[in-house]
Amino acid sequence: MLRYEIQAGQRLKIFLINSLAIAKAIEENSLVGVVRRTKPSADGKKPITKYQEIRITASPEQLRAFLKKTGTACFEKKQALEFQKIVTD
């Protein structure tokens, strides 16, 4: 999922979704989805931190409500891509 901003009709900025924020929302039941974490090491010393799967299964209506509530908080702060309009005469 992406978020975009158009600035002064000249620049298009694209922001990627923050997968960790989405995983947290799913684990807290704020968003319907599936999160699978890696298994801890056999000795039990390493905590479960890595994700094997983060999948949103919410309906379009549920996803819309979640995005309306969270706003831009579930997207990366820094844009992934930026495009600028170039005018040549």
List the helices and strands and how they pair.
Elements: E1 2-7, E2 11-16, H1 19-27, E3 33-37, E4 51-56, H2 60-70, E5 81-84
Antiparallel strand pairs: 1-2, 2-5, 3-4
Mean model confidence by pLDDT: 91
Please compute the radius of gyration using only Cα atoms.
18 Å
Low-pLDDT sequence parts: none
Q: Find the count of extended strands (DSSP E, 2+ residues).
A: 5
- How many individual domains? 1
Helix amount: 10-25%
- The count of helical stretches stands at 2
Biggest sheet, spatial arrangement of strands? 1-2-5
Q: How would you spell out the order of helices and strands? A: EEHEEHE
Task: Describe the largest sheet.
Answer: 3 strands, antiparallel
Structural class: alpha+beta
C-alpha geometry = elongated
Taken as a percent bin, the fraction of beta residues is 25-35%
Ends distance: 36 Å
Structural write-up:
The protein is of the alpha+beta class and 89 residues long. The protein has one domain. Helices cover 22% and strands 30% of the residues. It is built from 2 helices and 5 strands. It has helices at 19-27, 60-70; strands at 2-7, 11-16, 33-37, 51-56, 81-84.
Quick description:
By secondary structure, this protein is an alpha+beta fold. The chain has helices at 19-27, 60-70, and strands spanning 2-7, 11-16, 33-37, 51-56, 81-84. Helices cover 22% and strands 30% of the residues.
Defining traits:
single chain, 89 residues, alpha+beta, three-stranded antiparallel beta sheet, elongated
